[in-house]
Amino acid sequence: MSSNYKLNQAGLVEFIHKLPTPAILVSKNFENSFEILSLNTAFEKSFKCLERELLGENPVDLFDACFENRLNEGFVDIECMAKLKDGEEVPTYVKISKIDTESEEGLKLILVQDASREYELERELERLHTQSESIFEHRPDFNYTINREGYMTSVNLVGEKLLKYSKSEMLRMHYTEFIHEADIYTTQQKFKKVLESKVVQFEIKLCTKYGEKIIVYITAIPILDGGEVVGVYGNARDITKDREIENQLQESEQRYRSLFENNVDAVVTFDLDGNFAFMNSATEKLMGYSSEELLGRPFLPHIVSEYKEFTLNEFSKALKGKAIQYETAMYNKKKEIVDLHITVIPIILDSQVVGIHCIGKDITMQKNIEKRLSDMAYRDYLTGLPNQYAFQGHVEALVKGDRSFAILMIDLDRFKSVNDSWGHEVGDQLLKAVSERLLKYIPHNADLFRYGGDEYIISFESKSKGEIHHFVTMIQNLFKNSFIVNGIEISISSSIGVSLCPEDGSDIDTLLKKSDNALYFSKRHGRNHFTLYQDVADEIDNQLLKTELLLKNALQKEELFLAYQPQIDISDYSVYGVEALLRWENEEIGLVPPSHFIPIAEDSGLIIEIGKWVIETACRQLADWKDLRVRDVKMSVNVSTYQFYHIDFIPHLQETIRTTGIDPSQLVLEITESIASNAGTVIDQLKKLKEMKVKVSIDDFGTGYSSLKYLKDFPIDHLKIDKSFVQEIGEDEKSEDIVSSIITLARNLGFQTIAEGAETEQHIQFLKNQKCDLVQGYYFSKPLYSKTFKCWLSNWNI
């Protein structure tokens, strides 16, 4: 039998047990003598013995000296005497074959027959040889043999397929020709060890005929002949895919651990019972507990009581294989409440949920800011009175309750002169004094609100017009006595407009509009008196109609114009941009304040045409500012809610940008918080503006609360802090708190802040300390005509 073919020892033992010919399998032991490893049933019958009696015994004891002398040879046929158990000696024909396997050296197969069976013995050996060849050829791994010089002497079919060489090509090649150059030295060292009769195992890269790299795991075994190494038997198992999978798993694990361990948010893995199974260091920091204190324990006891049922329900959804997000709150180790935004992701293996990943983001600061703004949104920061938002809810409740009531809109006459004469501090103290006097004298069926600026609103429940008239007169008379503020005696009167529900309307917008029109009538007719809308409805309507008619012709007569107020980057006092402010001056009625003609324009629909004119004029002006000092200035333009929702708004804006040739990133559109009442439509419009690269600012931020919950979803650039808060800096801590909170909120959401109405050095210093981004107000400049602005800019010293 050729030494090139090897048998698996277990297969060989099984094979000889099936032979009809007596057979023994022997090998050398550590003492260099032979011992019996196995024998078959035919041998037991022939020698009248049992296998267990002879295992481990020396086979020479079964034959005469001729057998012993020839046993160490490789392949021999001899005739000798066999010794049976009962002492009888029988002449036999013995065939000794050297067998090498993958794991054993020096195996001998001994077949025993009488002379008459010599031909049959040869056939058995041939079958053994054929089986050895088949095992070698068809093993699933690359099998080969190498001579002592390192040349291939045999390869199997798998080797041909693996390395893309034919068998004839490979049998002329040295083994180093298949090995990647980086592994040649290592392989040569291993080859030397095998030639020293050692079995070696190692991992290397092979190269195919076409340069492809294959990773294999080699087992190399010496081929012995008469105790001498005559070659090497090798088994190469292709582990390329195994290593690729291992590398991918390792990379995935590294990515996972990086995401897990280095995440600034708390990342936790829970088992199906909600117990902590794994956590990152951010979790320990957030909760104040070490991992040892939490692992294996349930999360639910840490959840704030009122959130437990909700949180458990949400967690249960994840157990059903659904990834969800929600907000909850927990206690940390110090028993402080921590607000959390939770993302829960089921871990699914083989279509089964086996655990839960949870990412917890600390939103405590954001929640505190929202709560503070919420608390302040419904109460006036200066007087402590309920504000216009509280008023809206109050009136809605009255209307739903089918109550009869009057709305009194009160405006302090010439209040601006008080601020101009004695300063804002005295003006604020006067507002407080007015609030206290009104509160002191209004009856239980009346409620007082500060509507904004120097305006108050009182709701008075009564069905009697006489009682309402008497009440309004009493309120008017409260201003006959002067006010003492900071030692200064101030005499001030009031103008009042009154609307009645249900006579003048049954919804808040109609009632406010009519009381405001009645107030405007009072002011236009000498101030210091009150007007019931019903009493002068026709005259008011005529007056409004007249104003509307004049406004319709204002564009044609070029009575509308824009003034520009600079916006300053407070970090370096550079000019960031300007706000375009709409103005109207009519030769008959004079300079009309925007607060009066803008509502008329909105009610009449003129706001769409006027709004288009404003955008076109502002963009043309921006295009005209081409010189070095002006070219980077941003242009802010106010957009009415009616205009924003108009179907032609986006197309007109696109066309204006195209025809004027301006850079759209220099255009900033200012919209109010109230626009968030239709959040879905707003977001769609805002996304279109962002696609155009136009910037967006939320104007008068802080005077409303409805948009806070949508703010994080709005694709905007700026929050503009209402001037009513800015002007109280240095005089009212609550106003300062609001300003600080808005700046912090904007920073957390990635928005810039613009503070309008800055008039003093104290305002500027506070805003700078709070890291407000942009500031506009009289401290830097009043609104300017276009030419005046260019002159102002050229003289601006940074």
TrEMBL record:
Which SMART domains does the entry link to? EAL, GGDEF, PAC, PAS
InterPro entries linked: Biofilm_reg_signaling (IPR052155), EAL_dom (IPR001633), EAL_sf (IPR035919), GGDEF_dom (IPR000160), Nucleotide_cyclase (IPR029787), PAC (IPR001610), PAS (IPR000014), PAS-assoc_C (IPR000700)
PROSITE patterns membership: EAL (PS50883), GGDEF (PS50887), PAC (PS50113), PAS (PS50112)
**Per the database record, which ranges form the EAL domain?**
544-797
Q: Keywords assigned by UniProt?
A: Hydrolase
Judged by the first EC level, this protein's enzyme class is: hydrolase
Superkingdom is Bacteria
For this protein, the Enzyme Commission number is: 3.1.4.52
PAC domain: from which residue to which, for each copy? 200-251
Tell me where in this chain the PAS domain is found.
128-198, 252-322
Molecular-function GO term, any one: cyclic-guanylate-specific phosphodiesterase activity
Q: Output this protein's name.
A: Cyclic di-GMP phosphodiesterase Gmr
Q: Which organism is it from?
A: Andreesenia angusta
